[in-house]
Amino acid sequence: MLVLDENQTRAALPWEPLIAAIETMFTAECVTPVRHHHEVEVPGEAAATMLLMPAWVPGEHMGVKILNLFPDNHRRALPTIIGRYLLSSARTGEMLAMVEGGELTARRTAATSALASRYLSRPGAEHMLMVGAGRLALNLMQAHACVRPLKRFTVWARNADKAQACAAEARAARLSAVATADLAAAAGDADIISCATLSSEPLIRGTRLKPGTHLDLVGAFKPDTRESDDACIERSSVFVDTRAGALKEGGDIVQPIRIGLLKEAGVLAELAELVSGQPAGRANESEITLFKSVGAALEDLAGAVLACRQSKAGATG
């Protein structure tokens, strides 16, 4: 059985092939049962989350991701997300590969946001605001840069030192990035705003968004967490990765529905519909679009299959 560590997983998931693999999987006959989502008490610390995410394409591949999210792991200099993905044959049950789950999650999450951006952000978008400076931040900046002609990046985080470090990491990766302490001003200037935080309170104010902005919300994956306020919902055309996930777990969608601000029918499309052309996505240059992602097991399956294939091709090449 193939075993891929963090570095091997990263090398096996280049952005453009990964975005294409996820797009293809959204149109495939992939079965994705509702994931198990369990809160785990951690004495004296923020509660952890254990995720179990299965998916399969009949007769092809099947797999499950076991992911542990411990918000206070930074106190121990450990990653917030720790996990593994087990990929098997869906014809014989043979176990094919074990893929490092944290890196797989980071890259497939960013690639899914970039895929949505291809349909929802303005084609000429040049400025991206990255809200959050964790593991996802650089991944999101790099992935979005694959689908839009982004020329500059601004990074904001509650911890100014982490924002500066993230911007430096982006510059080392040849992205023109700076950190900012003024989130409101940066949000009002950005063409694309990507949020990857565990915030329980809105960070982005809809009144600050300029016409044509695309808002990409990939953090706040629990009903009681949120990165955008009600004004963002009121001003935006709303899209999600999957209705089954976002309408149940994503606080940015769940909370507005709960108070009657947004109806379920107000979610215009999920990603599978966008990639199939129904609807087409962004309607005009001035439209504000909002994409809420909570993660789908089919994205992990697409990434794991690609990683397995790329690694085997590299070994024989």
UniProtKB/TrEMBL annotation:
It is an enzyme of class 4 (lyase). The keyword NAD applies. One of its GO terms (molecular function) is ornithine cyclodeaminase activity. It holds the Pfam family OCD_Mu_crystall. Its EC number is 4.3.1.12. Keywords: Lyase, NAD. The keyword NAD applies. InterPro entries: NAD(P)-bd_dom_sf, ODC_Mu_crystall, ODC_N. NCBIfam families: PRK06141.1. Belongs to the ornithine cyclodeaminase/mu-crystallin family. This is Ornithine cyclodeaminase. It comes from Pseudorhizobium tarimense.
